[in-house]
Each structure stands twice: as structure tokens, then as C-alpha cells.
Specification:
The protein has 196 residues and is α/β, with parallel strands linked by helices. Helices cover 35% and strands 23% of the residues. Strands 1, 2, 3, 4 and 5 form a five-stranded mixed β-sheet that branches. Helix 2 links the parallel strand 2 (45-46) and strand 3. It is elongated. The N and C termini lie far apart (98 Å).
């Protein structure tokens, strides 16, 4: 029994060491600049054992997290990000060690290229689980965290995952690469005078 408890504690501490931080080093997003940050939660399905949360509470939490993570990029090309919360479960208080549900959220993400007036992605789905701390591993998220803490944690995980995904798309598919101007300026020796 002691070995099992030691293993659980060790795993919880390892998980705590890799928690998502509000301010992490920026990714390489090329010329990305966030123009508008949309969040929608009106149609979100609430899990059967979840704590209650209003659409406005979710909208505020997601927009705040995305602003913090993606609002810091100051590239020369503007993009809109739209995130729709599809479903969630905010863990209620459980029975320590025996029943410790984790909070989760499912979102769909759209990325819109403002200059080219086209979507780079529509309906990309992500599911995130809240981070585990040494306290929540033993006591349970519902006992350790308030509803607001669970929501802000999940919103941060969503913003973090979206940021990582955008970096992957930039690296693999050239999203946010510097665009070539449509009209290249003429070199001085190429300019000719009108003889008239």
C-alpha cells in the first residue's frame, strides 16, 4: 500500500512540474498578428456531473486566455481566431483518492486570414484536460479548485494547444510566412522617362 501511495504521489509531482504556465516562451508564428479573438459558448453541452457555468463565463475565460497567449505576437499579417466551446465538464467535489474526476473541454477552432479573405482552417477540434497538481491528484480537482479556477485553467490549456498547433502549421505548411508584395518596386535604373 505504501508503494502505491508513493507512486501516486510521485506521478502527481511529475505532472505538477509540467503544468501549463500563463506566460511561456513564445512559439515561432512568423508574421502572425491577432486581429480579432472570437469565443462562443452558447451551444456548449454540459457534462452530466459538471458544475454549472454560463456561456458568458466561458466566453470571458477563453477570450482572456487567447488574448494573453496570441495577443503578444506582433507580425505584419492579421488573422482572426474563432473558438467555439462544444462541450465541457467541470469536476465536482469527489471522494479523495477514490473518485477524482478531471475537468475537460472540447472546442472547435477557426483561423481566418484577413488579407486574403479566406479560412486557413475551419472546425479544427481539440479536447483538453486540466493539469494535475499534487493537491488535485490526491484530493480531486473539485475539492482543490473553484469553478473559476477550473475554467481559467481549461481556457489556458485551449489557448496553449491552439498556439502550439499554429506553430506546427507555420513550420509544416507555411502558415504566416512573409508574403511577397504583389507589385515589386522598380529599381532606379529601370525607371524610364516619358519622352513626350
Amino acid at each position: 500500500m505504501l508503494r502505491i501511495l508513493t507512486l501516486i504521489t510521485g506521478l502527481a509531482l511529475m505532472a505538477a512540474c509540467t503544468q501549463t504556465q500563463v506566460y511561456e516562451d513564445p512559439e515561432d508564428l512568423g508574421q502572425f498578428k491577432l486581429r480579432v479573438n472570437y469565443a462562443f459558448a452558447d451551444k456548449a453541452v454540459q457534462g452530466p456531473v459538471s458544475r454549472d457555468a454560463t456561456p458568458q463565463e466561458w466566453t470571458d475565460a477563453i477570450q482572456n486566455a487567447v488574448d494573453i497567449r496570441l495577443g503578444r505576437y506582433q507580425g505584419a499579417q492579421e488573422y482572426d481566431i474563432g473558438i467555439s466551446l462544444e462541450g465541457y465538464m467541470l469536476a465536482p467535489p469527489g471522494i479523495p483518492v477514490i473518485y477524482n474526476p478531471k475537468s475537460t473541454a472540447i472546442v472547435l477552432v477557426n483561423v481566418y486570414d484577413v488579407n486574403n479573405k479566406e479560412f486557413l482552417a475551419k472546425g479544427k477540434q481539440f479536447q483538453v484536460l486540466e493539469d494535475t497538481t499534487s493537491g488535485s491528484a490526491l484530493k480531486g480537482s473539485g475539492n482543490e479548485r473553484t469553478k473559476e479556477e477550473q475554467m481559467s485553467g481549461l481556457a489556458l490549456k485551449v489557448a496553449d494547444r491552439v498556439e502550439e498547433w499554429l506553430a506546427e502549421e507555420h513550420k509544416d505548411n507555411g502558415w504566416f510566412n512573409t508574403r511577397s508584395p504583389l507589385i515589386q518596386p522598380l529599381e532606379p535604373d529601370e525607371v524610364t522617362q516619358n519622352p513626350a
